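S.,

Sequence below, as promised.
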Amino acid sequence: MGLSWPLIRREIELDSITKSLTTRTNGCGVVLTGAPGVGKTTLARMAADSIAGDVRWVAGTESARGIPLGVFAHLVGASTSRDPVAFLSAARQALLESTSTGHTDLILGVDDAHLLDQLSATLLHQLVLDHAVHIVATVRSGETVPDAITALWKDGHVLRMELSPFTREQSIKLIESVLGGPLEGLSANMIWQASGGNALFVRHLVEGAVEAGTLRPSRGVWQLRGRATITSELASLLEDRIAQIPQEVLAALQFLTLCEPLDLDVLNALAGDEAVEEAERRDLITIVDHHQLNVRFTHPLFGEVVRRRVGRAAGRRLRGKLVEALSQRSIVGPTNRIRLAELTLDSDRPIDASLMASAAEDSIGMSDVQLGEKLARAALDETGGFEEADLLARSLLWQGGRAREGEEILKSFSPEDLDQRQLVRWGISRIANLFWAIGQTDDANRVLTILQDRVSHPSLVLCVNAIGCACAVFENRPRESALAAQAVLAEDHIPPGAVEWACFGGGLSLALMGRGYSVEELAARSAAVANHVDGLLRYPAALGEILALTLTGNFDTAERHAATYLRLASNGNYLAWGLANILVATVEIARGRYINAAGRLEQAIAALNVGDSADASSWSFPAYVSLSHAYAALGRTHEAQGIIDQAIARTGPQVAVFAPQLQMSRAWLAAAKGETSAAVELARSAARSAAAAGQLAIEAASLHLATRFNDQTTGPRLTELAAQCDGPVVSLASLQGCALARGDGGELHRSAKELEAIGAIPDAADAYAQAAIAYMASGDRRRSLEASAAASTLVTKCDHMSSPALREAAHPLPLTSREREVASMVAAGLSNREISERLFLSVRTVEGHIYHACIKLNACDRSALSEMMRTTTK
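The prediction came back faster than expected:
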């Protein structure tokens, strides 16, 4: 695709340059300094073009550097004088006489002023000193600059401005304007870090990645998958710098491009101290101290250019030397094992299956399942053994459609041929594949039965029970899951895998059951074993922790913990990043940050790449539930309906636990459409479903949602639930429900204030709106206005969310709730028959409601009523 790159205006810098070119307060112009490609020339020309004046441009070049006044030749003409003073005088006169009439000042633009010959620099200096011209000049950072140019800003004759690279936000804005769609946050980080914010590098990186197919859209979100690619044009620009370095320095850089970062002592041993020191002097590499001295490229793109110079045969040989050098040192820690194994794979050294397997385990533990697959496959090719096959299957589990490939690998092994430890690993990997990744719960349960029948070793039995408790909660058996988790965690000397699965199932169960305060201990135990289990598992396992905190009203803590998971995931792994964003969005929705949450969830779903496939649906399913809620709260009903339809298509026993929450999202959608009765019934249905499963916290949340939609029957049950659920949220919901039934504006106002105080902003907004309605009904106009103003303030904080109570409080009408609902449906374009079917009323009853609404609003007919409702609810 052909990409069109706009000019990004740097308003602050542009304003400063323009002022410097039109006044003499701060001298007679500006000199812009900065790295190549940062946008100096673009900004200078943009500023000069914005001024009505006579603008002349010259550009310093290496070829003209040895010619006196070479860059000015086209402006001042030839001179026969050999006297420099006379030469300068003639050039000055010719330049100024050529200025267009009607303009008092000449603006002289000088690109690459560091390349000016001495006479040109002197002429420029004199012109500025005499206030004969304004100048806008660019100078490349790190270059030797003529003294006459340096003196301009040192002596205060011109302003010197250091032009910084683009910020992350500026880079994203530029890229998205070119691509015509949103850029995934993780991909934005990768491009920004690779480019250093350099405008030129950003452009070539994006164009190269699009051309190579590594930057492509998924569900409307542009994603970078793979190494950042550079265009041949950018490579040529950078090659100029690389081509000038000595061969021994290039040899050092070739080792570094194959293994970055690299221990300084290792690089010195391979390439020689002098070569490494020269590379540092030329600012090609930097040495960082992270418990040991490591060498990195000063700019990532240097490594890309050097890598292009290394052929396959040379690469194998160089990697072999790196493997030999690194093998002579103590291999400590997973990072060093992974690095050595990856180098060995593509080197001329023999494969060590044991190293490959260990490194694959490390990679999976660090969430890099793609590398884990590569290393595990190499180990399996060498041995054909079960241990290596299990590693490969575990790496495939998290890669969408690859889970079925993992299942085929594991099915090739018979349980009769495995010892108990191998049998448990075989079974747990198959269950995880079948249940969460593929959605074949019956097959998963059959494998679980095999383990329950055949495993007898006590610690291994704990592992079997733990995976069973995780399955149970997703099948919507939270009480059973919580008891099983409690039994596992009560034992001594529990294997890490058993701890993680038990905390996963138990934590989610307790959160949903209203025992959120008990989840903290499980979250701590899960964190303690996180480095000993599959790294990606920590993210879906954390959902119980985040839900527990939000359902108990601990929103600040929930936000901090979710942000911590996102930081852990922001290492270039898009699967972890997508899962972590679901956690962050869960908190954002609870706090009413719907726009942020919607954008985040859109990117999370695209990152997990579930598309039209059911693969990995269990992990990503909460994103669909939350995104439909966010869309509906924002009034984006069409998009909400689309996401709900996709969620329904992915339902099944493997995600049965989320059915009540999906029903709540459907209630939000009905409310957004103005179908309040349906919204209340859907919320009640969610509450009944949650109650049947023992999800007391979700039952309470569903009844509170019905309360917010004006259901006046929820108070008694919410009062019962307040005594059973941890945290203040349910108690405040009970207060609101009871006050709503009585029409007590004062108590509704109190519940709103307390909800606001704990951070439940969307809930508080509705409670304020209901207080305003109750006050107005009792004739207390002053307090009604106060409560309405408070609701309006919170609505702004919640991205202008919409709900039945907020609409009624903002646009009070002399209609009953049913009349208002019918009138809203008329405004939505529904026929009387459609309204009757949705509200389970006769057509005659609907016609009666429309007639009474028209009388009360002085509307002459149905069309006038529709127009009036659309106008008053905007």
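The first strand starts at residue 29 and ends at 34.

Coffee later?
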